[in-house]
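step=encode ok
step=design start
structure_in=
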């Protein structure tokens, strides 16, 4: 992401794949060409894990540590309150950053550092500020969201934060969570996901794979059965809950049997919001040194995973026809139901309005 003022250009970089680093270098060169007199600074994950490479580029005037990039003193600019545009209907509030885990495919811990959590009062103030500006739905985000609180006094859990938000902000009517690690869902959070109407019925799991041996080689902390048990408990308590998941296709050593297990878990969990990532080796990670699946095979398997998710999603959307959905209208003429189904709306509905819609058909993957 690139941001600039008249005399300062900031590139907030990503390092999750080698392609992301390549694109960062391209962005630096383009920015310098477009703004030859400006001070050009780079922050983000690439500025950590590719520090020597980026620091040696003649276009770069300085690198800002990722953990301190929100400190205005490092940029030589005055601190100011970030404005919130009233037309935003949904706010994303980052309550956690960094990661203490060591998944073999991931370089994020090297770029983001150890897990760090915002204190409860800080989160409440930030969410309240968004609500005061007319935001109708808040999404809590983090690199490892469910580890929130482990570095704070008393080691509170994410369920504690959600409960305090709902208690202290009674006008917060829709709260959603970004990707969560299923094995870190505490009982308090489970209870809120299962029974609290103001917590949206939508859980996106950092699942990554459906085969136990691959999960072990990824150094994930869950097995297939853990995910199955969690989703069974959630759907038993709250049948309308929608399940999303991140899945990696073609992880090193993945054979056809493991791929079939990956396909099967999509059907068994009923994954309707799927993010499928073709495996891309990242230099400096253990997975990059493992026996690799060929790129054409990775693409084939990724396509099959996406097709399986599409089939689950189509069936799920069909099951929602004729049933009222409370939809938060957005600026593009669509909106999202609590279960994150996207709905096409009648023209003229003001963004930020919550309307009841009874869908009668599916048009281009949207309820209508």
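sequence_out=
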């Amino acid at each position: 992401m690139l941001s600039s003022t008249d005399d300062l250009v900031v590139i907030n970089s990503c390092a999750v794949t080698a392609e992301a680093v390549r694109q960062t270098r391209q962005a630096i060169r383009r920015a310098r060409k477009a703004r030859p007199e400006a001070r050009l600074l780079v922050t983000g994950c690439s500025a950590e894990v590719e520090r020597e490479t980026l620091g040696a580029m003649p276009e770069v005037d300085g690198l800002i540590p990722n953990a301190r990039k929100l400190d205005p003193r490092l940029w030589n600019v005055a601190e100011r309150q970030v404005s919130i545009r009233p037309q935003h209907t949904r706010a994303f509030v980052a309550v956690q950053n960094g990661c203490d885990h060591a998944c073999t495919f991931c370089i994020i811990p090297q770029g983001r550092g150890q897990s760090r959590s915002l204190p409860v009062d800080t989160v409440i103030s930030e969410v309240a500020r968004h609500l005061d500006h007319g935001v109708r739905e808040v999404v809590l985000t983090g690199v490892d969201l469910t580890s929130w609180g482990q570095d704070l006094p008393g080691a509170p859990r994410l369920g504690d934060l959600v409960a305090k938000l709902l208690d202290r902000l009674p006008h917060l009517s829709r709260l959603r969570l970004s990707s969560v690690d299923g094995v870190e869902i505490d009982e308090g959070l489970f209870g809120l996901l299962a029974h609290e109407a103001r917590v949206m019925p939508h859980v996106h799991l950092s699942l990554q794979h459906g085969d136990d041996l691959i999960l072990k080689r990824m150094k994930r902390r869950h097995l297939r059965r853990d995910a199955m048990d969690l989703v069974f408990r959630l759907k038993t308590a709250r049948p309308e809950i929608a399940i999303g998941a991140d899945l990696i296709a073609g992880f090193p050593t993945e054979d056809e049997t493991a791929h079939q297990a990956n396909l099967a878990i999509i059907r068994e969990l009923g994954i309707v919001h799927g993010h499928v990532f073709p495996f891309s080796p990242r230099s400096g990670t253990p997975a990059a040194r493992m026996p690799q699946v060929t790129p054409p095979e990775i693409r084939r398997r990724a396509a099959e995973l996406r097709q399986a998710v599409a089939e689950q999603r189509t069936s799920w959307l069909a099951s929602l026809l004729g049933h009222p959905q409370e939809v938060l209208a957005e600026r593009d003429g669509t909106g999202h139901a609590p279960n994150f189904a996207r709905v096409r709306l009648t023209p003229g509905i003001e963004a930020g309005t919550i309307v009841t819609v009874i869908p009668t058909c599916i048009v281009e993957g949207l309820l209508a």
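step=design ok
step=annotate ok -> The radius of gyration is 22 Å.
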